[in-house]
Amino acid sequence: MNLILQALPVAAPTVGWAVHALFLIRRLRTARTDPLTGLMCRDEFTSRALRAIRRPHTAVLLLDLNGFKQINDTHGHAVGDQVIAAVGHRLAAWCASRGGFAARLGGDEFTALVRLDPDADLDAELTYGLSALISAPLDTGGVTLAPRASIGLCHTAHRPGAELSELLRGADEAMYTAKRLGDHWRTAGPAGAYPTVTGRRAGRPGAHLTLLAPARRRAAS
């Protein structure tokens, strides 16, 4: 008993530091993870992507949901949160099967990085793959919805040596072109091939976008 009492002053600070360390680890993990989707946040994605883009067969994607404001306005923000969470989980599963990872940038906008052969059938990968997965019926408890997204892709094979910011810019321009045209997806080709005329950066100096294989057209939501 005396030995236990003598050990308490030493053990107590040790236990306290262990609990504090666990608390800090949880805080750090929370700071790196979006609480709604479980996806990584912007800073964590950037940190990992800066390393990952140096590997061969890497593609960067940006996704933006279509008609999401209408979902919130019609069915409420709780249903909107369910849609965001479901899309995040579906995107994460698709990325994991392709050696990649995803992040929520905020609102209804997501980004991802995957390993994808530059000669891959993008209609199969994006129209019948990712887009179909995201649009699968979602039972929210009160209404069944089919989330839809516009997807932009920029492959490192088309822009050798490009920095992450350039790859994201290419994917961003392709995504907004897909949204404007009512397509499932668009892909950005070599930088500087054609001036951007349809992306959201149209008119900004130095912004360029090449539209390669056109995506399968769908009705705009």
TrEMBL record:
InterPro entries assigned to the protein according to its UniProt record, in alphabetical order: DGC-Regulatory_Protein, GGDEF_dom, Nucleotide_cyclase, Rev_trsase/Diguanyl_cyclase
Gene3D superfamilies on file: 3.30.70.270
Domain GGDEF: 56-191
Source taxon at top rank: Bacteria
PANTHER family: DIGUANYLATE CYCLASE DGCT-RELATED, GGDEF DOMAIN-CONTAINING PROTEIN
Record protein name field: GGDEF domain-containing protein
Organism the protein comes from: Streptomyces luteireticuli
